[in-house]
Amino acid sequence: MAFTLEHSATHRSATYTLSLTAHDDGQVTLDLRGRSADGAVEADGALRVPQAAAAEVARLLTRALTAAGALGGAARRRGAAPNSHAPWTSELDSALRAQWLALGESTPAGAAIRELAAARQRSPGSIRARLSRIGCDPDVPGRSLSAETAELIGKPLTAEKAA
Q1: 93, 100, 101, 114: most buried by Cβ count inside 10 Å?
Q2: In 3D, which of 70, 72, 94, 86 has the Cα closest to residue 122?
Q3: Residue 19: enclosing H or E segment and its boundaries?
Q4: Burial class (CB in 10 A: 0-12, 13-18, 19+), 41
Q5: pLDDT tens digit string along 89-118?
Q6: How far is 163 from 160, CA to CA, in rounded Å?
């Protein structure tokens, strides 16, 4: 007895529909269709596999689609900054330190951190954490961490950071 299951999901402005049909001959057909809000085709394809291999094929498809999504940035958490998890270089650290220390102490720290984060396409939390790692006081723009404060928060100053 043949049967069909159908599931739809919307991502951004496109709706995707996946239909699975089990046939009497022991085969399974997966049919994927996707259309944007304006009707443009976003996805179109079919795959026919033996029913006995369906679970293994599903695992392979999951791995492949997850990897493809990561390559295109789709696996990034919703709302994550584009440069989240990008490595910090000594040049990036030096530029951040110089910009922070050039600010006046009367500058609101939160606003300064948000501005630095936006310019670097990083989250405010990552900028705040990085400031203490490079010897800057994240609570007071324009101020370096004192050796005592750095030790207290577990970020001992190196000669480079104290300079």
Answers
A1: 100
A2: 86
A3: strand 14-22
A4: exposed
A5: 999 999 999 999 999 889 999 999 999 999
A6: 5
The angle subtended at Cα 93 by Cα 89 and Cα 96, nearest 5°, is 140
Distance CA 103, CA 96 (A): 11
Residue 134, CB-side half-sphere exposure with 13 Å CA sphere = 23
| Domains with residue ranges and CATH for the chain | 3-71 (3.10.450), 90-162 (no CATH)
Do residues 132 and 153 lie in contact, with contact meaning Cβ atoms separated by under 8 Å? Answer: yes
* Cβ-proximal residues to 113 (8 Å cutoff; 6+ apart), any chain: 124, 127, 128, 131, 138
Q: Please give the helix or strand (H or E) that residue 9 lies within, else none.
A: strand 3-11
- Res. 74 pLDDT band, cuts 50 70 90: very low
Question: Exposed/middle/buried for 158, CB within 10 Å: 0-12, 13-18, 19+?
Answer: exposed
pLDDT per residue as tens digits for the range 149-160: 777 766 666 555
**Best CA proximity match to 1, nearest among 30, 29, 31, 22:** 22
DSSP per residue, 25-69? TSEEEEEEEEEETTS-EEEEEEEEEEGGGHHHHHHHHHHHHHHHH
Is the Cβ–Cβ distance between 6 and 19 less than 8 Å?
Answer: yes
